[in-house]
Amino acid sequence: MSFELLDEHEQGEVVRKWLRENALSMLVGVIVGLVLIFGWQQWQAHRANRAAEAAVQFQAMADAAAANQVEDVQKIAATLREEAPNGVYAVLAAFQQADIASAKGDLVAAGEALEWASSRAGVPAMKALAALRLARVRLAEGDADGAIALLDGIKGDAFAGLAGEVRGDALVRLGRADAARDAYQGALAHLQPQAPGRAVVQMKLDELPAAPDATPESGSETEKLGS
Asked: CA 216 to CA 121: how far, in whole Å?
């Protein structure tokens, strides 16, 4: 079978016919592409504006906290959590709310704020910090097992020293002195010599009952000789 090549005129006619038949779909494709590009640019600009607004609000919240204006802190934190729930400033605002609630002894409110922070935190370190603080709240509520479960879920060693201390506290509450000793020793291994909380951890370790001496397997040598 043989194929004849089209001459230039015939090729032009074929191209013009194809353009006539497909002009509408090409135009629609171009318009859709332009709309998508414009929409993406608008969305990026919107996100940038929201982030800038959140930063301003967070600074206002920090200023209010420094001035001990608790009501203003709560209002700004609530606004951040409502308007920018997936941003880092909203998570930090929830941390601030948890601190205020803990200072008032409202462990339920503190726990709710930290649970919200944990669910929204996109940065692993912030998620770990939320879990660590929530573990402290659970321990204060008397739920030592719940505190340990939260600590078990923390990934990495970013807060290993602090987590080890809370784990030791929980194990002491459960009456597991040997395991608590290991937890405190692990915490000390991760804390720098000049770390502010190192002395406290060492004190907690020193206050544990002494580890039981190893029991002889089958009596002393003297007993063996005397028998």
From this structure: 52
For the cut 60, the answer to whether the pLDDT of residue 147 exceeds it is: yes
Section 28-56 average pLDDT = 62
Q: What is the pLDDT of residues 159-190, one digit of tens each?
A: 999 999 999 999 999 999 999 999 999 999 99
CA distance 114 to 129: 9
DSSP per-residue letters across the chain: ---PPP-HHHHHHHHHHHHHHHHHHHHHHHHHHHHHHHHHHHHHHHHHHHHHHHHHHHHHHHHHHHTT-HHHHHHHHHHHHHH-TTSHHHHHHHHHHHHHHHHTT-HHHHHHHHHHHHHH--SHHHHHHHHHHHHHHHHHTT-HHHHHHHHHT--SSTTHHHHHHHHHHHHHHTT-HHHHHHHHHHHHHHS-TT-TTHHHHHHHHHHSPPPPPPPPSS--HHHHHH-
Neighbours of 97 (CB within 10 A): 24
Query: Please, what is the average pLDDT of the chain?
Result: 81
Rounded CA gap, 74 and 64, in Å?
10
Name the nearest CA neighbour of 88 among 118, 56, 123: 123
- Evaluate if pTM is beyond 0.85: no
* Percent of the chain residues past pLDDT 70, beyond the cut: 70
Q: What is the mean pLDDT of residues 120-125?
A: 89
Tokens of 45: 């600009």
